[in-house]
């Protein structure tokens, strides 16, 4: 079996045009991240552009983070608070003078005030007050449990119980720059490139066998008849996993090199946008979880492509239908936070929803299944596992015949 | 070894691609002749286990091949029609892949590959890319992969299609050598491919086995019915409409026609020794 998997990889993916496309897309991906870094795109303009004009601000930004990053202490909080108070008082006259001034961090006081407020005072305030804020949410949830109990609303009861169980005891003991992590979680251009490479590598997986007449040779040989379907699917998973690891690695390395990612061990709710996330993982662990979810989503999408490849004699049709599948799947995944059941089901059935794991986990998104609260993510993963089993079965059915009407003549049994 | 095909029938809806085919085959070359669409590929597909017959059974040495499972596939070598293989593979890589498909133990792979490449005279192309091989070399590679598992039954579907005359002769010689201890079933619609090497010819027409026998036996079927006649150019049209004209050859200002006919077509004609192509024509032009 391993030999067959190796040859499947050699046959379909270790081709010069596939390798060249991977290399080209990796470089393009890094360039896109750099472009966003320079222009300050993403997070609705939270970050300044990286230009010669903003060099002073960025130097100050990094200097301050070097000084403040690490455990969140009273001294650090006091220092930031004092600076905020001082600069607030200096700018209280409302003149917002931007003329060059001495004894400032960035050239003038107003700029210092904006920088300190936006990048340090507010984030530190959020981190310091999170424990108290979330405790209030837990208390409210506890009250809600009693409230809904009186009205026999099992779903809301279960939802609030979930909040009670998963949100209590949370606190942010450290201060790091979480925004670059948020930017990394939201970055999805690499997903598009992976999907294109999947089209390139997976569409020929069965169709090419038919074009080269190799399908008949396989079907008339012992291993070809028995193990080929599994070998092909396994090789497709390996290809997808390699693409995902390569692109995720490049994303991580490029973001780390440009934005100086730090605090991989801080809880993911330390990023303000994720304050109500249902998971209590570290930021690094959360990134790994997102990769795993993407792997499941891409694997199911890959199985869809394999099926299209198995259905047609010529590669052109699976290519066209594959693009259609991707577009419709991505469109459906846009409804994953929808409150309308019909749209939500479409989104959960779409494997592309798992490419947006950060959106599924940014807030507490659940589904009412028999008046029980179940995380949408859990439902989506289970649905994808069911879909993948069905797809694999159908692929086996179609791939054992090069034409729809064919069926195997002999039982596949070793040395029967 | 004996391969017996009993009452094989294959239907696609209302269409019958193969109708009550029966034959008993043993070692040696068998030519399976028939026009395109006669049912050759359907029969081959059933024989190599990629298509299930609607009716009938295949027995190998008295055992139903369905009972044998994949053990039956171990005894079969197959070369499909117009194979392209994988252009990005090297010859040795492709054969190693085929060894993996045929479940040949790793310890035997190298020796088997050397052995088959020598048999088909492709040793020099060991490291060549499949995409760089000529049509003839690729067909020989096809034979090489088919015999990797040392099969008892070798099934070749239109193996000489598109080959130049030199390669066709070389190919026929290879097949002759291989048939010493194997059953070789060679499907073709090109009569000369099997005329001189086949032990027996099976002629399929519209899904039915219409004739079976050695080339000599088949030729006897049209003995006394093949004629040569010399005609003028303006007479050709008339002759073609009235008789089964198998060949038209230009002579000095006149034309030599080869005709299959029960009766002498004219006083000018003279009887000639029949060939297998005459048999073929007499069946399909009826």
TrEMBL record, chain A:
<feature type="transmembrane region" description="Helical">
    <location>
        <begin position="319"/>
        <end position="349"/>
    </location>
</feature>
<protein>
    <recommendedName>
        <fullName>ABC transporter permease</fullName>
    </recommendedName>
</protein>
<feature type="transmembrane region" description="Helical">
    <location>
        <begin position="189"/>
        <end position="208"/>
    </location>
</feature>
<keyword id="KW-0472">Membrane</keyword>
<feature type="transmembrane region" description="Helical">
    <location>
        <begin position="12"/>
        <end position="37"/>
    </location>
</feature>
<keyword id="KW-1133">Transmembrane helix</keyword>
<feature type="transmembrane region" description="Helical">
    <location>
        <begin position="286"/>
        <end position="312"/>
    </location>
</feature>
<keyword id="KW-0812">Transmembrane</keyword>
<feature type="transmembrane region" description="Helical">
    <location>
        <begin position="369"/>
        <end position="395"/>
    </location>
</feature>
<feature type="transmembrane region" description="Helical">
    <location>
        <begin position="229"/>
        <end position="259"/>
    </location>
</feature>
TrEMBL record, chain B:
<feature type="domain" description="ABC transporter">
    <location>
        <begin position="3"/>
        <end position="231"/>
    </location>
</feature>
<keyword id="KW-0067">ATP-binding</keyword>
<dbReference type="InterPro" id="IPR003439">
    <property type="entry name" value="ABC_transporter-like_ATP-bd"/>
</dbReference>
<keyword id="KW-0547">Nucleotide-binding</keyword>
<comment type="similarity">
    <text>Belongs to the ABC transporter superfamily.</text>
</comment>
<dbReference type="InterPro" id="IPR017871">
    <property type="entry name" value="ABC_transporter-like_CS"/>
</dbReference>
<protein>
    <submittedName>
        <fullName>ABC transporter ATP-binding protein</fullName>
    </submittedName>
</protein>
<dbReference type="InterPro" id="IPR027417">
    <property type="entry name" value="P-loop_NTPase"/>
</dbReference>
<dbReference type="GO" id="GO:0005524">
    <property type="term" value="F:ATP binding"/>
</dbReference>
<dbReference type="Pfam" id="PF00005">
    <property type="entry name" value="ABC_tran"/>
</dbReference>
<dbReference type="InterPro" id="IPR003593">
    <property type="entry name" value="AAA+_ATPase"/>
</dbReference>
<keyword id="KW-0813">Transport</keyword>
